[in-house]
Amino acid sequence: MLVLALVLLLALVLGGVGFAVHALWWLALLVLVLRLLGFVFRAGGRAGGSRWYRW
Description:
The chain is 78% helix and 0% strand. The protein is mainly α. The mean pLDDT is 82.
């Protein structure tokens, strides 16, 4: 019974880690798209213009 409980606990932990990693990949993709949009909009404006984002 203890082994079954440990296996279920391990499955829950690994499932949670997998979900967190999946969510972080989506977050990284969103940040990449925002950065690329920032470069596109900055290149389309004046050469020394202000940026619409802070980084």
